[in-house]
Model the fold of this input.
Amino acid sequence: MRLAARHGHLTTAFALALATVLAAAVTFATGPSVRAQDSSAEPAARAEANALSENVRVDACASDPSRLGLSRIVEIDSTDGPQFGANHGATTDFLKDGEVVLTFDDGPLRHNTRNVLKALADHCTKATFFMVGRMAAADPAMVKEVAEAGHSVGSHTWSHKNLRANSFAKGEQDFEMGVSAVNRALGKEATPFFRFPYLGDNRQIGEHLKTRHMSAWWVDVDSKDYLTRDPNVMVRRVMSTLAVKRKGIILMHDIQRSTAGGIRMLLDQLHDKGFKVVHIVPKATVQSLAEYDSIVAKSFSTKAAAAAANPLADRSIVWTAPKHATTDETAAAQTNVRPAKASPQDAAPAKAPAKSKPQPVEILPWQPQPFGY
Done:
């Protein structure tokens, strides 16, 4: 089965029925289009094997009908910076009705990330993790643990700043330091998969992605797990969206309690409702740039020294709040003092203005948190 040539960045899809594929070597066909292989066809032994195919991990339980498992694995060619998901990926949509891609942002955060990994392993399925560079520097062993479990690891900038609000020079540095940090934590080159923090597009960074041959990944189904501590709320939001859209790239955050506590429930419901997981893997990896490697190396050295000095410390690091945060609580976090209380004489005599409803924002481990971790 061959899809239209517009899917030029998708070089392979395979294992619609994994029983046959698991009995043979995992191979990838190269070419300008997606090629799907089902169990009735002969194994693709004659297809030219991709260099990365031997590193793709497909567990034997992936075809167990009692688990969510895997439906297909799609190899992504990130040459020239294609975009996937939502309206950005209108010409690169490779998902069929009932298929989803599982993605997790902002980690790793050891306790929560391990809960996610355990649930994925129990359902014998795979996901893609878009990791923040500073989080990778805080716990490189956790980054390796995610990759060793067979999941794809991409980047999500160094500090999770909204690139839409940054100049190109600052945005490029944050982007490249994120790539360097994830590569360093892995001890090898990561996937050329990238997600913009806050889904905040930046045209210049988008053009930069093309020169770096990295693909941008958007979102079809947003769990908005940062809005609640309740796993049930997160699960209902995802499933209700899928009931309408019927497929898509799902966004969750492995740092969030609602996802760490609700991921197993979500996977159970995806299985029970007949949804299938598609796992994305790269055709090639991404090289980091030496000038940013040297900057990131200093941060890794600092974190390693701190860990050696306090080996029993919880690796869920607390970071200084980003400069773009503006609340009194954030300002206090930046100076490590409590916000000063206004004295009675400073109080304005005029009638207090009506309180505006605060807009929900994604809370990260190094920012002040309304719920805590």
